[in-house]
Amino acid sequence: MLQVFGFDRIGVVVGDIFFVDPNPRQGQEGAERGVRLEVRMLRPGDLRGSIYSARPIEVAEPVWRADLLETAEGQPGSLNRAHHHPGMTDWEPGRRVFDPALTADPVGWVGSQLSDLEGLLGEAGVEVDSALAADAQSLRALVPEVQRAVSAMLDGVKAGELARAPHSEVASARVSWL
After folding, report:
1. Which structural domain, as residue segments, surrounds residue 72?
2. Number of domains the chain contains
3. Using one digit for the tens of pLDDT, what is the confidence trace for 61-119?
4. Which pLDDT tens digit goes with each residue over 34-48?
5. Which residue, 42, 44, 57, 39, is CA-closest to 9?
């Protein structure tokens, strides 16, 4: 499942994920499932037809990510591997940052983070101009909608309806929205 909340230059993408790291670090072995939330840049494309044609919109590079994950073999809803990546470079996440507040209240934590988009962008090395400041204000108004989407997806994961293992033994990761 995928939901995108788009503004002028920023988008918030929320989706379910089932993931197996082929080269895990100590303590991170085994499949993970959960909900991934990313703040991404949006880029409008050129019209491909008349002035009435639809304009392409690119959901571009991520600048921040929260992974509300748990071990797939563990207790549903444990979120024992929930973490975030304060910055991303060339599409790659930095190290996992674990925060007990994220595991204790993932939906509230996500809301707090998104309510300070300027801070998230600054920490990720993105200069906040007037357009991004306007997006931050617009996002603050929609944080409760994003939180509802995250909550519904977490419920779907806990119920076994979302973030399920791929059917193929060859598949090592399933991200339904990438």
Report:
1. 2-175
2. 1
3. 999 999 999 999 888 899 999 999 998 999 999 888 999 999 999 999 999 999 999 99
4. 999 999 999 999 999
5. 42
C-alpha distances in angstroms, 29 versus 26, 89, 174?
Answer: 7, 24, 16
Alpha-carbon Rg of the chain, whole angstroms?
17
- Return all residues near 74 (Cβ < 8 A) that are at least 6 apart: 80
Could you tell me which residues are beta bridge partners of residue 84?
66, 97
How would you class 140 by CB atoms within 10 Å of its CB: exposed for 0-12, middle for 13-18, buried for 19 or more?
A: middle
pTM of the model: 0.89
In a 10 Å sphere around its CB, with 0-12 CB exposed, 13-18 middle and 19+ buried, how is residue 22 labelled?
exposed
Q: Which parts of the chain are beta strand (E)?
A: 2-6, 10-19, 32-44, 57-71, 83-85, 88-89, 92-93, 173-175
SS3 category, 100: helix
126 CA to centre of own chain: 17
DSSP string, 129-172: -HHHHHHHHHHHHHHHHHHHHHHHHHHHHHTTSSSPPPS-SS--
